[in-house]
Amino acid sequence: MPRRGANEGTIRxxxxxxxxxxxxxxxxxxxxxxxxxxxxTRASVRDRLQxxxxxxxxxxxxxxSARLTVGTFLNQxxxxxxxxxxxxxxxxxxxxxxxxxxxxxLGHLKVVTLSPQQVQRFLNAKSASGLSPRSVAYxxxxxxxxxxxxxxxxxxxxxxxxLAQPPxxxxxxxxxxxxxxxxxxxxxxxxxxxxxxxxVALGVGLRQGELLGLxxxxxxxxxxxLEVRQAxxxxxxxxILVEPKSVTSQRVVALPAVVLDGLLRHExxxxxxxxxxxxxxxxxxxxxxTTTVGTPLDGITVTRRFQALLAxxxxxxxxxxxxRHACASLLLAQGVAPRGVMExxxxxxxxxxxNTYSHVVPSLGxxxxxxxxxxLGGRMA
Length: 381
Fold this sequence. Notes:
With 381 residues, this protein is mainly α. It has helices at 42-57, 70-85, 88-106, 116-128, 133-152, 160-163, 179-189, 195-204, 208-212, 257-276, 299-313, 322-333, 338-345, 350-356, 361-380; strands at 10-13, 19-26, 32-39, 219-220, 225-228, 231-235, 238-242, 251-254.
């Protein structure tokens, strides 16, 4: 690694390929705080570090500087706002957007002079490069969140990303398994080692991460309920347990009898596996769904097994997440109130439930009209 130059502070090459400088500067409350400066090249980081040191020496802070670039601000936002408050997977996703798209395209511009036109041209160029509308919209969403923070901090007077026009994103038509296909799936998974995992996904709509992070301590087989308190995610190559997606994702769910029976069989199977192998790794987390030696399951592996199972059963290809959609659609089709479906799935707003599963609503409206006709039609005859 090249030697540091004079007054360069601490500059190092990170594992992700970016250069990082760490420097002590005056914070908003005049206390000394450590800041991180990230960049794609050593030279760019060195220049930003010198800028920060010069501003600090003049009694200014990095965050209130009129010379603050978009790249410097975005990396500061990631460290100060995203990393402490969001899930590791969210931080990794936002960091990738900043590193791959926002820094190269807008990083050299000053935050205070960034205009809606510049952001619009940037988004248009991303679309022209072949990125999908959904990807471009996500890039804009990350920038909008960051500049929203800049607006709250008083660094800018308006959020120019909010003023830029997002690309049109066609709404993905959810086509989950219907009731007949769900019965075919139940026949196909009978006896499968992960039968209970598929049953819980279809029966109560847990997200894949919630399923893989489910602990036996959170399953009450006597009362027939489970509590969602954590999720399993892969972050920087490691499987770790994190908090659920949102506050409403932490929930207690009542289990249908078919799901409860599956969990009871799974508990017995897992106990047998534990006794049958000397390689079993006792885990204090006591996860419900594990490999044959007791280690956490990888989501990609689970999805591949699920899709192979669908193919053998002659069912249409699905994402694993579509089992969650199937759960919601089947519940709505059976007349379960949307709020009940919302609480089962752990949605934050009922509008999210209704918008996602609007394809089921017309049939519910027809059923309501038929029932009203049964009630009133006889009197009018």
